[in-house]
Amino acid sequence: MNELDIPIFKKTYELYKSFYGLRQTVAKQDRYTIWQRCENIILDILENILLASQLSKSDKLPILKKTSLRLNLLRVLIRLCKEIKAIDNKKYLLLQEMIDEIGRMLGGWIKSTKDF
C-alpha cells in the first residue's frame, strides 16, 4: 500500500493546502510568527504520519503519541490565532473541523496500535 493513500495522510495534506491558502489573508506581523509556527507543526505532523506508516506496529506508538501532542499544540495555536484576530471565525471553524477529523483518525490509529 502506498503511504500517500492513507486517509489520515490525505486529510493532513489537505489541511496543509487549506492552511497555506489562507496565508495571504493573515497580517504580516502574524504571518511570520504564530502562523509560521502552525505551518511547521502541520508539516511535522505530515512527516510523522509518513514515518509511522513505514514502521512496525511496536515502533509506531511513540511516533503516533508524539504526533498527537503536536496536533494538540496546533489546536491551541489555531485557537490563539482566532483570539488575537489573526483569522476570523469562519477560517477558524474550517481549520478546527479538519484538525478534529485528523485527531479522530489519529486516535483510532493509536488505539488499534495499542490493541495488537
Q: Tell me the radius of gyration.
A: 15 Å
Specify the number of helices: 5
First-residue to last-residue Cα separation: 20 Å
The backbone outline, from C-alpha atoms, is: elongated
Tell me how many strands there are.
0
Note down, in words, how this protein is organized.
This protein is mainly alpha-helical. It has a single domain (3-114), classed as Up-down Bundle (de novo design (two linked rop proteins)). The protein has 5 helices and no strands. The protein has helices spanning 7-22, 28-31, 34-54, 57-83, 89-114. Helix 1 (7-22) runs antiparallel to helix 3 (34-54). The chain is elongated and about 45 Å long. The relative contact order is 0.16. The model has no long low-confidence stretch (mean pLDDT 95).
Short account of what is shown:
The protein is mainly α.
